[in-house]
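subagent[fold] <- orchestrator: predict structure for attached chain, return tokens only, no commentary.
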Amino acid sequence: MKLKVLNIEGKETGKEISLSDKVFKIEPNDHVVYLAVKQFMANNRQGTHKAKPRSEITGSTRKIKKQKGTGTARAGSIKSPLFRGGGRTFGPLPRDYSFKLNKKVRKLAKKSVFSSKIASKSILVLDQFSFDKPSSKKCIKMLTDLGINSAKSLLISETKNNNLLLSSKNVEKVSVLNSDELNIYSLMNANKIVISEAAIKKIENILK
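subagent[fold] -> orchestrator:
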């Protein structure tokens, strides 16, 4: 499969890039994508939620009324979950939500997303992100020239590009990653993906 290479002004450079069928033209596996997204979101959960059980509540342990003869339910101390200010029954406690996923499964998920995005013509290839200095105005113009200024976009460079990153900070619906930072959630969340020519080759080497 081949894609035309564009420049930062949205014009064709006359070059084409060949995409690996093993990365960009596989049968998408939706279940694997689901597992990878679930893992990404679970691994990012803090899990610091906490509610106090009755053993951690400050208060008297005196039995507040006699066991029988009151006509109401028996009750122990004021720390009982039945009373206001008492402990919570089966409340949340700090825990780790993360779980493991095989490296091959994570790679298959990314290849599935790339293949789906290529099939829907949601991927554009740029010769390079030529930003000499941070400029939000230049970033907006680039997106407008590419015809994706109103879409949720993901820009992928080969290596960390600080000028591109700073240029996109104040631009709505735009995210920036380099080829070493790719994650399944960002790929799925983007409606349009713009990848530099050098980043394509690096991604293919990583995912093959």
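orchestrator: received. Logging for downstream: The two ends are 16 Å apart (CA to CA). The longest strand covers residues 12-18.
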